[in-house]
Write a structure and sequence with these properties.
The protein is α/β, with parallel strands linked by helices and 589 residues long. The protein has three domains: 128 residues, Glucose Oxidase, domain 1, CATH 3.50.30; 110 residues, PtsI, HPr-binding domain (Enzyme I, Chain A, domain 2, Orthogonal Bundle), CATH 1.10.274.10; 325 residues, TIM Barrel (Alpha-Beta Barrel), CATH 3.20.20.60. Helices cover 47% and strands 13% of the residues. It has an eight-stranded mixed β-sheet. Helix 3 packs across helix 6 and helix 22 crosses helix 23. The longest helix has 30 residues.
Length: 589
């Protein structure tokens, strides 16, 4: 029998590690959702069925949360808080009740339809964290449907040998039920490095790849694969030589990771003495543990959106204050930058009250929404100001700024809040520093006009690349055009940094580019003062900084000025990293 040809598939590395073994293909439930009309006298019974299913779902989620907290820690347990918010969200549950009464259809059909509407709305968002909320809704809905039907499913039933799981998606509530001894690794078609499947995989120490589109249709049960969770590669039908190669890589990575773990207490300083502020990005308070464990200097981006995604929409001042104050206290004596709301209007209102926009990425969101809804914005500003009393290093940052005028209007509202709190006798830091996200080309080009009004810039490279190159990075057809090293993007970064320094303020980078160690020398060479990466990327970036001379980085940045393609720039960055820290290149690619 002729040996099958080796095939390599590419996705997004989500949890480090290498796994080799046979595949188990997990197919989505093929059970159709029941759909039938209700007689008028059948509606009360249907309501009772839903109420009972919600109660059972809530009980199950509390049990899962407790068990996960005991075994995997608070970070992983926090995932199920979002699931509980779905069950307890009155706007979601009330809409199901209302449609059952109005449409007189069974609760399974209505629940599925309402949940899918919510999920599709969230999937329009240009934010990995917010898109992941769609997975929460679908996961919880699947659990409620199971309880309506009177039972669940064991995905690994009858599995005798450990396998690499391949699926379109894996809900975290099902992952926690897995027997770790029966799983080698995970590959999903959906998801991102910040998705719950990625978070859970890292907590369970399972190699994982996400975003591998179409993989379910390319594999069959039992086929042998090698999963590389760092490079995001899946090798199908590997040769003996390839298996030996990956065995060597796994041994080398283990040695390197052990050494990187010792960098926690070390400073991010180049070989010639140039200090860099290396911070971390977080999604919610439970992420602070990971920041401190990786040795980051504070929090360069605290996304506040999670507070607005459950319990009926807009959180009050007290709830926001408690969340911000918790992070401010826990990260002391380091600093934290809180980004104000970066959502669209349809995501913080009861479903359907805001007309759907044709292009929400360019629409009514972030600072535009906040300036149009000053009461909403001031509630958040007051909460942040109050939290600033717990940490003098707490700062505030406005997202999606496109002009200096928007900064003026936002700062005017901030001053109003300061006046109100002073009159009320509420403590806050009167010298709270304000900064802006530079993620729209117009903001980068007018950085000299914006700089006098703020204390710092933070370049959001994810959106800056997308808006500059007119590329939707989640659209597979044009994703190859998404180039952080494109000459136009580099010119905007360089212009922003130079403008900030002319006005005596600093510039950081908080997008994915900041966490890519291959690009670290280029950013430092262009004069970037601070980098804020995901916690797992912090040790890699720190290692590059400690192997680098600032003069080398500046030479690289100067050479990049004359390069005409992003690929040429990237290869030069790669060459430098290979020379100064080849072992990091192996981890990063």
């Amino acid at each position: 029998m002729e040996a099958q040809r080796e095939l390599e598939l590419k996705g997004i590395g989500a949890s480090p590690g290498i796994a080799t073994g046979p595949v188990l293909l997990l197919r989505a439930d093929d059970h159709p959702v029941p759909d039938y009309a209700l007689p008028a006298d059948g509606i009360p019974r249907e309501m009772l069925r839903l109420e009972a299913a919600l109660l059972e779902t809530r009980r199950q989620l509390h049990d899962i949360q407790t068990r996960v907290g005991e075994v995997l820690g608070s970070d992983s347990a926090g995932i199920f808080e979002a699931h509980l918010q779905v069950v307890d969200d009155p706007s979601f549950v009330d809409e199901v009740y209302r449609e059952v009464r109005v449409k007189r259809r069974n609760v399974e059909r209505i629940l599925s339809d309402v949940a899918e509407r919510y999920a599709r709305t969230l999937l329009q968002m240009d934010d990995d964290y917010l898109r992941e909320r769609a997975t929460d809704i679908r996961d919880v809905t699947r659990r409620i449907l199971g309880n309506l039907a009177g039972g669940g499913r064991d995905l690994l039933a009858g599995l005798e040998t450990p396998r690499v799981l391949i699926a379109r998606d894996l809900p975290p509530s099902e992952m926690v039920a897995f027997d770790r001894r029966r799983i080698l690794g995970i590959v999903t078609e959906l998801g991102s490095p910040t998705s719950h499947v990625a978070i859970m995989a890292r907590a369970m120490d399972l190699p994982a790849i996400v975003g591998m589109s179409g993989v379910c249709g390319k594999l069959a049960d039992g086929e042998r694969v090698i999963l590389d969770g760092v490079r995001g590669r899946l090798v199908v039908h590997p040769t003996a030589a390839r298996e030996e190669e990956y065995s060597r890589i796994a041994r080398n990575r283990a040695v390197i990771q052990k050494r990187l773990a010792k960098l926690k207490a070390e400073e991010a300083v180049t070989r010639d003495g140039h200090a860099v502020v290396l911070s971390a990005n977080i999604e919610m308070p439970s992420d602070v543990d990971a920041v401190q464990a990786r040795g980051a200097r504070g929090i360069g981006l605290f996304r506040s959106e999670y507070l607005f995604m459950g319990e009926g929409g807009e959180p009050g001042e007290e709830r926001q204050y408690r969340a911000y104050a918790e992070v401010a206290r826990r990260i002391m004596p380091e600093s934290v930058i809180i980004r104000t709301l970066d959502l669209g209007g349809d995501k913080i209102s009861a479903a359907g009250k805001i007309p759907e926009e044709a292009n929400p990425f360019l629409g009514w969101r972030a600072i535009r929404l906040c300036l149009d809804r000053p009461a909403l914005f001031k509630t958040q500003l007051r909460a942040i100001l109050r939290a600033s009393d717990h940490n003098p290093g707490l700062r505030i940052m406005y997202p999606m700024i496109s002009s200096a005028g928007e900064v003026d209007r936002a700062n005017a509202l901030l001053e109003e809040c300061k006046t109100e709190l002073t009159a009320e006798g509420v403590a806050f830091n009167p010298d709270l520093e304000v900064g802006v996200m530079i993620e729209i080309p117009s903001a980068a080009l007018t950085a000299d006009l914006i700089a006098p009004k703020v204390k710092f810039f933070s370049i959001g490279t994810n959106d800056l690349v997308q808006y500059t190159l007119a590329v939707d990075r989640v659209n597979e057809r044009v994703a190859h055009l998404y180039e952080p090293t494109h000459p136009a993007v580099l010119q905007l970064i360089r212009h922003t940094v130079e403008a900030s320094h002319r006005h005596g303020i600093w510039t950081g980078v908080c997008g994915e580019t900041a966490g890519n160690p291959i690009l670290t020398p280029l950013l430092l060479g262009m004069g970037v003062d601070e980098l804020s990466a995901t916690p797992p990327a912090v040790p890699l970036v720190k290692e590059i900084i400690r192997h680098l001379r600032l003069a080398e980085a500046q030479d690289l940045a100067e050479a990049a000025r004359g390069m005409s393609t992003g690929q040429e720039v990237f290869e030069c960055c790669r060459t430098l990293v290979r020379r100064i820290a080849p072992e990091i290149l192996e981890l990063a690619e």
